[in-house]
Amino acid sequence: MSQSALVDAVLHGGASVQRRAIAKAITLLESTRADHRAQADELLTALLPHTGKAFRLGISGVPGVGKSTFIEVLGLYLIEQGHRVAVLTIDPSSTVSGGSILGDKTRMEKLSVHERAYIRPSPSSGTLGGVAEKTREAMLVCEAAGYDVVIVETVGVGQSETAVAGMTDMFVLMQLPNAGDDLQAIKKGVMELADLVVINKADLDADAARRAQAQIMSAMRLFGLVNHAMGHAQAQGPDKQWHPQVIQLSALHGKGVAEFWAAVTQYQALQGANGRLAARRQHQALAWMWERIDAGLKQAFRQHPQVRELLPQLTREVAEGRLAASTAARNLLAAQDRRA
Amino acid sequence: MSQSALVDAVLHGGASVQRRAIAKAITLLESTRADHRAQADELLTALLPHTGKAFRLGISGVPGVGKSTFIEVLGLYLIEQGHRVAVLTIDPSSTVSGGSILGDKTRMEKLSVHERAYIRPSPSSGTLGGVAEKTREAMLVCEAAGYDVVIVETVGVGQSETAVAGMTDMFVLMQLPNAGDDLQAIKKGVMELADLVVINKADLDADAARRAQAQIMSAMRLFGLVNHAMGHAQAQGPDKQWHPQVIQLSALHGKGVAEFWAAVTQYQALQGANGRLAARRQHQALAWMWERIDAGLKQAFRQHPQVRELLPQLTREVAEGRLAASTAARNLLAAQDRRA
């Protein structure tokens, strides 16, 4: 298939043709071959004008919190409302082991076979930065194909939550009802990323869920993530803007899903009107560009023959306190300037 | 003065000779001239075997918290105990304006004229990374000259606290007694860095200070920075290690300074014995090396003629969503590879 035929099939193909074209496009984007990469960049540039119209929703939570169940219920609800839903995954374990925390084939049985849904597992190798890049690009392909809600999910492990928050319009953190009993379980850094905290399995223990909701809310206030005076109501002032909320639901029983989506819609309306959504996307795009530049510079540095020759010894000398770190850095940078 | 004479004067000079040699060495290290930089690296390498024996204490707090008063009282106390004290400063405002939050000439009047103290203000220009590098290097010069307590102070603004925690053995956060009334004032990120929190001006309002102490301690517990079961006592178990504490003092009235130093000494003993101090220094040295390498790579990238030509336009296209960030990054990296 030619490049332009592939673009056309992604943009306008009928159900099964489009689905195959998306898979083919993403496979091309994930390829590490240099000639593929050049084609992939052309493809991305051709698709880009057709992207950006979807709502990008990030969802994170520890294993067992019920992400798959929730995303399936949410996805089916959204399809019923007329949306098309893509679900992408960033699995940080895949970058280490090639294995997969999230790769369970039985996940989202109903959603995965629905013709208005597209589910793609995590790229199965590479650094987290590389995996995140592939997922961002896959997201653009899905948007060009007309999926208007893109869900990017990850487990609450490592830096993957930062990566997901950095590519989505809204970041949702899922918690279990016992979260309030042990606030240590709520990582500060992740809390700062959360636009919405969802307490799932709220039906298991209503008291615990209520307690968790109050305690997470008070922790967010304590650390200035929400306004002191702010309850669950959103600001009514002239600078109408979203403040993080904590809500309860039960994905298994389908309870609270409509309320969840109402909160998302309110977020989108407020942050769209006040310009924060557009600013967030612009910031994300530039941060992404610099992140990839940094990664590229570092990779070229580490692969440079002179650097590879010197690095082990200088690292040892710095670690043992026999060479100043700044001197070692200057020597290594100078080594890279001497072309092999 | 020859390089070896300068090294000798720093290591073994009499009071005034040594003081002039330190100043001269630090000026050399701060120079941006390439030939000076080569000499500076030689100097550092010659001094390095004589460094590492000082205790490195980082102190941070907002303007008005009483850092200067505290450091003067502490410095004089330490001199009385037989120590020699160097005080270095990282002023993040100097990297923007060349001005100085901390440059007040009337600061530490008694300490600054004491022959067993050496006080050096912040390097007055450069990026924060550059300023931090100069300060690290100045610290090594002071250590080689036999100062056995090096205090690095900064104001609680921007990233300078991370920089100071990254070059010291122990990081102390100073707070006002009303801190507990508004925990938003306590930045989460900084709290994580703190090995010890000091509530200064505790004499102003004993109730407020006690409340602040309890609330900061409970916030630290809440976020898992100290063990739930842990009071103020340190661990007695087999893995004896330091847990962050919160103490009160009044620098103005010289109250609590001996207790402060006792806590520092206990920290040093525990973390020295369990190996964490050595591990921290090794980690810092390697992180410093990579931080300088990253800065150097980024600088060379931004200064490359082809990159400078392309960057403004590609940045605009990425910001406006007309070019994928990853494509822009690849184009810019490729441009750098085409030698001008």
Topology:
The structure is a homodimer of 340-residue chains.
Chain A: H1 3-12, H2 15-30, H3 34-47, E1 55-61, H4 67-80, E2 85-90, H5 94-97, H6 109-113, E3 117-120, H7 128-144, E4 149-155, H8 160-165, E5 170-175, H9 188-193, E6 196-199, H10 206-222, E7 245-248, H11 257-273, H12 276-303, H13 305-319, H14 325-337
Largest sheet of chain A: 7 strands, parallel
Q: What's the rounded overall pLDDT mean of chain A?
A: 87
Radius of gyration of chain A: 22 Å
Quickly name the level 1 CATH class of the largest domain in chain A. Alpha Beta
CATH topology of the largest domain in chain A, by name, is Rossmann fold
Extract low-pLDDT stretches of chain A. Answer: 228-233
What fraction of the residues of chain A are assigned to beta strands by DSSP? 5-15%
Q: Largest chain interface and its two residue counts? A: A-B, 51 and 52 residues
CATH architecture call of the largest domain in chain A: 3-Layer(aba) Sandwich
**Count of individual helical segments of chain A:** 14
Global geometry of chain A: globular
Strand order of the largest sheet of chain A: 3-2-4-1-5-6-7
> Separation of termini of chain A?
41 Å
- Work out the oligomeric state of the chains in this entry: homodimer
The computed structural class of chain A is alpha/beta
String of helices and strands of chain A:
HHHEHEHHEHEHEHEHEHHHH
Q: How many domains comprise the coordinates of chain A?
A: 3
CATH superfamily grouping of the largest domain in chain A? P-loop containing nucleotide triphosphate hydrolases
Helix content of chain A: 40-55%
Number of strands of chain A: 7
Family (chains A, B): Belongs to the SIMIBI class G3E GTPase family. ArgK/MeaB subfamily.
Organism (chains A, B): Rhodoferax sediminis
Pfam family, one (chains A, B): MeaB
GO molecular function, one term (chains A, B): GTPase activity
